[in-house]
Amino acid sequence: MAMALKCEGRHIIHMGIGEPNFTAAPLENGSEVRMPNSSYPCNRHFIAAFDGRAKMIVSGPIECSQLSHGMVHEHWDEHNRGVLLASPSNSTDTSILHSELARIITTVRGKGGFHRR
After folding, report:
1. Please, are residues 10 and 50 in contact by the beta-carbon 8 Å criterion?
2. pLDDT, tens digit, for every residue of 6-52?
3. What kind and span of H or E run contains 14?
4. Is the dihedral of CA 97, 21, 80, 58 positive or negative?
5. Among 5, 33, 44, 63, who pairs with 12 as Cys (CB 3.0-4.6 Å)?
6. CA–CA distance, 115 with 105 (Å, rounded to integer)
7. Closest-CA residue to 54 (of 85, 10, 23)
8. What is the DSSP string of 81-107?
């Protein structure tokens, strides 16, 4: 199923199953979004479509290919606007624990980054 989104004159075609897992983020030219290095390649293009730059954080087997709130805090800088948590880790049967996700959201909000409810 393909789904088209439109935001301020830009169109995004989502080819996944179900609804897209993102909304248009408030990015300015040069804003950065952190994501795990195991992220789907298309996620970098979603960020670029809104004039942002994807910055990868190394996450491997020890982290189950996921980010933690500590990693987000450590890699945050003045150019960062948010975090995109979407990875092909479904094939490894891993996910972010709800408690860790809550800590990541708290970290992002505390740093003034965007988030989606």
Report:
1. yes
2. 444 444 445 454 444 455 556 777 889 999 887 888 888 888 887 88
3. strand 10-14
4. positive
5. 5
6. 7
7. 85
8. EEE----GGGGGT----HHHHHHHHHH
Distance of CA 25 to the CA centre of its chain: 10
Q: How many CB atoms are located within 10 Å of the residue 74 CB?
A: 9
C-alpha angle with apex 50: 67 to 107, nearest 5 degrees? 30
- HSE-up of residue 72 (Cα within 13 Å, Cβ side): 25
Give buried/exposed letters for 82-114 (b at 16+ CB in 10 A, else e). bbbbbbebeeeeeebeeeebebbbebbeebebb
Give the pTM: 0.73
Q: Where are the domains of the chain?
A: 26-110
Give the domain 26-110 fold: Aspartate Aminotransferase; domain 2 (3.40.640)
